Fold this sequence. Notes:
Layout: H1 3-22, H2 28-40, H3 46-71, E1 87-95, E2 100-105, E3 108-114, E4 125-132, E5 135-140, H4 141-154
Parallel strand pairs: 3-5
Antiparallel strand pairs: 1-2, 1-4, 2-3, 4-5
Helix pairs in contact: 1-2, 2-3
Amino acid sequence: xxxxxxxxxxxxxxxxxxxVGTMQLISIWFAVGALAAFIASFxxxxxxxxxxFIIATAIMLIVTRPLIRKIRPxxxxxxxxxxxGETAVVIEEINSAQNTGxxxxxxxxxxxxxxxxxxxxxxxxxxxxxxxxxxxEVEKKNTIDTSKSESAEVH
Length: 155
């Protein structure tokens, strides 16, 4: 066995072991490139083997990347993301100008801001639109219901 064959065998084994260890599809492309270069090492000098490795790896990356993006979701929602769209009750007047406001969501008190800057009175029902750190950005529920019915008529 030539030293080039050994080199490509080591790269192939390392890439496969890394892939098996992580299961994140981060080195499978290099394993295919190393396999192509290993086969080329029987017939071609090292410079061509290196070019074959780079081309095979690039082709694998270009061909499989779109497929992998479809299979693996880009972001996994957190528990807080699931609260977006939920309703909460204002327990302290929301006034963005005075930086005040609290709501109760699923039994937990949250600091809240009005998404449009309006003042929302205590006791009103709001809908969670966004979560920014420890603040919920909310909108009055009755303004949402009106806009939903209008948008439903348009579509």
